Every structure is written in structure tokens, then in C-alpha cells.
Amino acid sequence: MKLILLGAPGAGKGTQAEVISQHLNIPTISTGNIIREALKSGTEMGMKAKEYMDSGKLVPDDVVIGIIKDRLAQDDCSNGFILDGFPRTIPQAEALDRMGIVIDKVIDIEVADETIARRVSGRRVCPACGASYHVDYKRPAVEGVCDKCGDTLVQRKDDHPDTVRERLHVYHEQTEPLKSYYAAQGKLTIVEGQEEVADTTRLTLAAVEA
Ligand code: ADP
Ligand code: ZN
Domain residues for 94? Predict the structure, then answer.
């Protein structure tokens, strides 16, 4: 199964991607995580992406399209995959179509902007393995420590309030049009994000299996 998860920054795409990934045994491809990895290893691509990312802007299409092309060509993607954070613009979706990749389903997780702002401020991430937590909704077993690898959790620079406002603006302007793009292809299912993560998960898995 080839799936796309759509939704505003902080809507919970990453969390849902993880559940579906285990359920269907297919990898999650997160462009955000790939870019952050590149940044950590100090590659040229990473350095270029940094200023866009830190200011809440999108990294240029040609950069992310290149990343996705390479990543989807790897062996573990042959039985399907979940795209988390790609496409984020119409040209990125068109590039995917041009690569001959036929997406089965697009699940859009809808969360109100006010809720997003509140959630994102509580998000904490693991700089080592990319795992994501929340101070209220998804706490690690030991406060401030990654369950998976034991590293110290941090707040992403782009999760600070001003940057979040910019990211929401960019989302509405550039990413939200993808809903009509995929609705026109008959692939879109909308999931209303719930207060409890487990409730959203139930709805998301139902959408995957529908
Ligand atoms: P979130 O889903 O919480 O916004 P991500 O980790 O997916 O966070 O993305 C963080 C940042 O990485 C984005 O704000 C953007 O700068 C960059 N990025 C990730 N994916 C893309 C993409 N498909 N196109 C352009 N920029 C991207
Ligand atoms: Zn970790």
C-alpha cells in the first residue's frame, strides 16, 4: 500500500504514520526527518535547507523531490510506504505522478489551528533517532528521555510560537490545495483529529482499511 498522510504541522501525522507503519509493515518516509538528518551530518543539502526550515518556510521543491526520488528507489519501499510530510505543494505531487508512483490512499488529518499551536509548543523530539513526544499527550517513560534510544529530548527550533504561525500560514497557502488535488483523484479520506491520540488512531486505521 502506498499512502500519503496530509495535515498541518503538528496535526499528528508522524504519530499516525508510526502506527500504520507497524500495522502494515511498511516504512514511513518523513522528508522532515531526512532533512534534519542531513543537517546533522552537515551535508551541503542540509546546510541549504536549514534557513528555510528554521524560519518555517518550505525547502525548495527540487531539493525535496530529489530526496524523495532517491529514498523511494530503495529496496524497503518495494512493498509500499507511508509518506509523512511529502508532498507539501502541488508541484511536488505532480513530480510524484511523473515518477510513475501510483498512490492508493491519501489520509488528511484535520486539526484546528488553535489546537495545533497548543500542541506544537508541547512537542519534544529526539535529536538522535527522530522519535516524537508530547509533554501532555505522548510522554516518554522517563521525562525528557527518548524511549527508543535514551537520548535527551529537545524542542525543535521551528516549534517556537512565531515560527509555528508562519508554518500554518505556509500550510494553508501551499499544502492545503493538495486536498482538492487528491479528492479529484478519488483518493482523499478526511480524519478529524481527536483530543485523544488513541481515538485518532482508530479512525486512521479504519480509513487505511476502508
Ligand atoms: P511538521 O510536519 O511538524 O511541519 P516536518 O518535520 O514534516 O514537520 O517538516 C519540518 C520542515 O522541513 C518544514 O517546515 C519544511 O521547512 C521542511 N520540509 C519537510 N518536508 C518538506 C517538503 N515536502 N517540502 C518542503 N519542505 C519540507
Ligand atoms: Zn531516540
Answer: 2-26+79-111+169-209
